[in-house]
Amino acid sequence: GPKGIGKSFLLKLICTKILNIENNFEIAKAKFYHPDLIVLQKESDKKNIPVEEVRKVRKFFSKTSFSGNARIALIDSINDLNTHGHNSLLKIIEEPPNNSFIFIVNHMNSYVPLTVKSRCRSYNFRQLDHSVTANILRLHAKDRSENEILFCASLSKGSAGEAIKLLNSNALNTYKELCFFLNNINKLDNINIIEYLESISKNKLNLGFLFFKLLIYLFNKAIKIKALNKEDFILNEEEKTIKHLTKIYNLDDFFNLREIINDSFLNYSNLNTDLHSTLYSLIIELTKNIKNK
């Protein structure tokens, strides 16, 4: 299922049940350890889970259970394994050890070999409803405004984990700034544009992907409103911006602009292009396009 909907938490909860761990709900929420459990997760500074870590699972299963219960391996997630990792995992699940469980999380965002899939029992999880995501945010951050909660729930597309990240990144304020920028492009000179650009790119980890996400969200919403003629606004700033854009652009214009934005995002995420230069080129192109209109 999609990332951020609670698959890992559910599996940890199941592991605590199998291992007869008390207070399992609170323990499952934390990063817990047990001699009969091995968890493979990608480190934040690594591109993949190293194949050496996968090989440790085979050695782990060769040992006798510490508690007399089943031994458990949790791979979170298979999308963080490379080809060597897949091959090593396949050797383990081809002949699964007795009295064991191997849980594999799949975020469905990368290719998983059919040889691995065919040896697994699959359980499919759907995205959360918008109302469920909003309720989770209300419990998580009781001090946040209803506008923030509804906006982050909508932007996350049914991923509570993503919604919490958006809330913690102050996505609503960044979205308001984006709307203000697009509304006032005709009044801005090159210095103003550079200042806005630097406010985004100075904190690459927090704002790089978020800016693209917000920009794509805004244009997708504008296309939907333009096509269906059905208004659906969360903020006054958003309403003003989209009404302005839908007056000057037809649907073909919107689709062309969205393609430019998507291409720029793919260059940044897949080709690892410099954030500052990527955003500068994109913003200059958008600015010229809107001013010409």
What keyword list fits this structure?
three-stranded parallel sheet, mainly alpha, about 290 residues, about 5% strand
Shape field? elongated
Number of strand segments: 3
SSE succession: HHEHEHEHHHHHHHHHH
Distinct helical segment count? 14
Strand content: 5-15%
What is the helical fraction, as a range of percent? 55-70%
Structural class: mainly alpha
Radius of gyration: 23 Å
Alpha-carbon distance between the termini?
42 Å
Low-confidence stretches: none
What's the arrangement of strands in the largest beta sheet? 1-2-3
Residue-averaged pLDDT: 87
Please summarize the sheet with the most strands. 3 strands, parallel
